[in-house]
Amino acid sequence: VQLQAYGGGLVQPGGSLRLSCAASDNIFRISAAGWYRQTPGKQRELVASITPMHNTNYVESVKGRFTISRDNIRNIVTLQMSSLIPEDTAVYFCYVNDPLSHDGYWGQGTLVTVSS
């Protein structure tokens, strides 16, 4: 499974940004998916996850500001980010977990910078 992430960039505090990640294989439709982020010197952090049945989970720091969603027809997982703060600055990675093979797949990182 190949994952192509896009949508990062520079945004001012309080602004919004949408990240999307397209999967190359229909295994996506039965796979859990998520978005992680990483800053220099820190471990990769799970930001949000979504099950094939659209159940979602968020890290406390983004609750009420970020929304994860998925399109099981187009094999896309999206992270809508609002009310961004400088602490959200990080490289964001999408992730898909194949429940059949138990393999995990990562997209290439996309940089989100929140700065005035």
Could you please describe the fold and organization of this structure?
The chain has 116 residues and is mostly beta strands. The chain contains no helices and eleven strands. The protein has strands spanning 3-6, 9-11, 17-23, 32-38, 45-50, 56-58, 66-71, 76-81, 90-97, 104-106, 110-114. The strands form two sheets. Strands 2, 4, 5, 6, 9, 10 and 11 form a seven-stranded mixed beta sheet that branches. The chain has a four-stranded antiparallel beta sheet with strand order 1-3-8-7, with no helix packed on it. β9 and β10 form a beta hairpin. The chain is globular.
- Counting helices, strands and paired strands, the structural category is mainly beta
Shape: globular
Give the H and E element order.
EEEEEEEEEEE
Largest sheet: 7 strands, mixed
**Helical segment count:** 0
Question: What does the secondary structure layout of this molecule look like, with pairings?
Answer:
Layout: E1 3-6, E2 9-11, E3 17-23, E4 32-38, E5 45-50, E6 56-58, E7 66-71, E8 76-81, E9 90-97, E10 104-106, E11 110-114
Parallel strand pairs: 2-11
Antiparallel strand pairs: 1-3, 3-8, 4-5, 4-9, 5-6, 7-8, 9-10, 9-11
